[in-house]
Specification:
The structure is a single chain. By secondary structure, this protein is mainly beta. Helices cover 5% and strands 41% of the residues. The protein contains four helices and 47 strands. The strands form eight sheets. Strands 1, 4, 5, 6, 7, 8, 9, 10, 11, 12, 13 and 22 form a twelve-stranded antiparallel beta sheet that branches. Strands 14, 15, 16, 17, 18, 19, 20, 21, 23, 24, 25 and 26 form a twelve-stranded mixed beta sheet that branches. The longest helix is centred in the first third of the chain and has 14 residues. The protein binds zinc ion.
Length: 572
Amino acid sequence: MFVKKLILLFILCSNILAFGQASITMQNTYPTDYFGSPLDIPLVLAGTFAELRPNHFHAGLDIKTQQREGFNVCASAGGYVSRIKISHWGYGKVIYITHPNGYTTVYGHLQKFSDHIEAYIKKQQYKNESFEVQVYPSASELPVKKGDIIALSGSTGGFIGPHLHFEIRDTSTEKTINPFHFGIVIKDSKRPTITGLVGYSLDSDSQINQANIPLQLSFKKLANGDLLADKINASGKIGFGVNAYDQLDNASNQNGLYSLELLVNGEKFHEFKASVLPFTEDKYINLLVDYERFEKTGQRIQKCFIEPSNKLSMYSPSVNKGYLTIEDKKSYNVEIIAKDFSGNTQKITIPVTGKNDPVLVRKVLVETPYKINFTQFNQFSKDGITVAFPKNTFYEDLWLDFEVKDSLVKVHYPNVPIHHNYTLTFDVAKYTDAEKKQMYIAAINKNGRASYESTVKKDSIFYASTKKLGKFTLLADKDAPNIQLHNFKNNQWITNHETLKVKIFDYKSGINTYRAEINGQWILMEYDVETNLLTYDFKDKIFTDTKHELKITVTDNVGNTNTLNATFFRKI
Ligand SMILES: [Zn+2]
């Protein structure tokens, strides 16, 4: 535990870094001297803007905090705290500051807030009787000056290591913008690294080296550090993608690129740029990346062409959406350039010759009775199970693999991306009311592990709205959650304890709610989902008695409830 006290409240962070000019000239004019550093330690990054993550782009910078918590987090510029959110997952404890110049900065995974913000939010938590809370203070409530300490850095928000997540957003559109555009300079003398190249045949009669399937292509490193792929023969409509990362100085983390360009015979065909990211487009990352390959192999290929369903706006105007049409006997010099924000590049050159050879390798399409026309609503039922897909759930037409065997349901494959939730419904008329009460819909992952899917129960059906494809089943949770005293024993004197800690866990459906009281009054217990600990801070409330009755009630996702009563003694 790295609990530091906030002594320097309202005092300016001692060491605000002066940011220099950004090293790349930008078309958009972002102020480069307005925002200061959100931390008073040298900035070393674990993650960059628009870095590719599972199902989303990383919306800001992840700033390393030396594997520790408790560094001062400072207001990057003056303004007011416009939003505070505390949640078990996501950004954990997070502060949003709105600035008068039209931007909002975001500070996530905080350990705790500065005293006056902490007091403000605790008042809300006690009023709502909830640890998870979200408030939108007005402009006059929590004003901040540039450099004010607003919080201590932490690791809240689920299973993550200590770091500060920092974002800059356009206040009116809520689009996130690459913080590097605002003059934040992180030393980067290393060039990006391309680690994989894949060629794609993009219609039924196109081919690369006689194959009509995605093809991993080999390459070698040249003396100047760039890469040269083996010559390929191809015909028809094809495209390319690469796996690449960028390393900054002073850290070994593999971060995202700033841009990825594709040139054909010297002409720029395609460019992806990590400048501005609208949250509404987040899901299209599953079309930018070769989703199937990533799910199967972990290799994250970024495609240099734009498929018809891909509405991502992070591309510059392209020629033919980045597709190449290879004609017989013609030669093409294809270059892909990976670039970081400092302008370092690595280029891979792919020599292509047009050759109308016969196609020898094809992906076998398996037809099923369940044809998905992706632009329409599709619904199928089998043995008491119904799947209903709203239009545009999928990105293309396909034959759905939908099977029901005993109580195990297979809804296609996890390696196919989907854009919206769909509904999975189980007919449960054959079960008794007592059985139904304990049952829930569970998703079964690749390793056979079951996880609770938020189950809605209605008469004789259960349904779940989910974005997962793959296997599902019905399970029963007969056991109430576990509750264990953690840092004290029943009937113990604990006058010197600063906190009260209790461990809660539920093996099957998982914890839904918990409530803690001392002497009949609700107390705030912070829930850390990583350690399963509930923590109460004795500074929160004054109890005048010496004998205290603690009561904790925990309910799991099917409604099994457990209550623990304990007594402890404490002098004021
Ligand atoms: Zn982050």
